[in-house]
Each structure stands twice: as structure tokens, then as C-alpha cells.
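Q: Got a minute? One more chain.
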Amino acid sequence: MATTADFRNGLCIEHNGDLWIIVEFQHVKPGKGPAFVRTKIKNVKTGRVLANTFTSGFKINVQRIENRTYQYLYNEGDLYHFMNTQNYEQTFINKEMISAPDLLKEGENVQISYHAETDSAIACEMPTYVVLEITYTEPGDRGNTATNTFKNATVETGTTVKVPLFINTGDKIKIDTRSGAYSERVKA
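A: Always. Here it is, folded:
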């Protein structure tokens, strides 16, 4: 058993029967009363962030999480199939566990987090940015880079993304997987 003195960012703990990751914490010693630890914790399964306060010395149950690199192969409905890049074993996980499944293309590497005690997948994190090719968009305006106007574009995974007016069909763009927004055009 660990205590609040062992808190650090990224530590996975069991709290109220769920797995939580500590996003940030702060030890507080007020002038009057006992010390406490103010934290922001993130639920591993739902991704919900919660502000929580622990009294100093509170006993916690630390959980071990392993991150493994997998390569995306294909999907059958809501089941996505992945291959371990180390031992070539295949696994599949539900669509809800993936952070941005609509931006996932075949051959993309992802990090799948496993709970070490049960050896079960609990989350699938995509890279921060992915590079995708535009398959369809309205013709662009050459030299129109100063305005903050966007148009719809369909990328190779079938997802629609807002892009600037100068982007054309066949261009490759970098997309932020956290927000699903256009980041920049990639030079060939």
C-alpha cells in the first residue's frame, strides 16, 4: 500500500472501484487544520477528469499499467483488429476504447494500455498527429492563405475535416487526433 506521499503525475491508482490516472497533484499545508493533497485524476475507461482531495497520509492502491505498441490492421464493425509489433500476436478491441477511431488508417501504430493484473486492454491511444491524404474537396483558391475561412474536405479514412481554402484534392495534411482538427499541410 502506498500513501499520498507517493503521488506523481501518470501514476495509476484504484479509487472507488475504478482505475484512475493522476493528471496533476498539489500538496497543501494550510495554516490551520491538517495537510491534504489536491488532485486531478482521469478515469482510464471513460476519460472523465475529476478534481479530488485526499487527506495527507491516505492509503492508496497503486495499479500497474503496461503500454504496448500495436499496428492497426482492419475493423469488422465495432471490433478493431491490431497486431503486436514485438511478437506479432493479434488482438481486437472495441471502438469505444480508441481515442479517435475515425482517423485510424491501416498500418498506423497505436499504444494500447493493459492492466497488468488482469492483462486486459483498458485504453487505446493514437499518435498526437496523423498524416492523411485528401480524397475530395472543392477546388482551392491559389494564394488564399491570409483569410481564416475553412471548407469541408474528405480524407482517405472517410472522415470530413475543415481545411483552409488553399488545400486541394491529393494534398496530404496533418490532423490533430485529440481534436480532429486540421494542423498543417505536409510537403511531399
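A: The two ends are 53 Å apart (CA to CA).
Q: Perfect, thanks.
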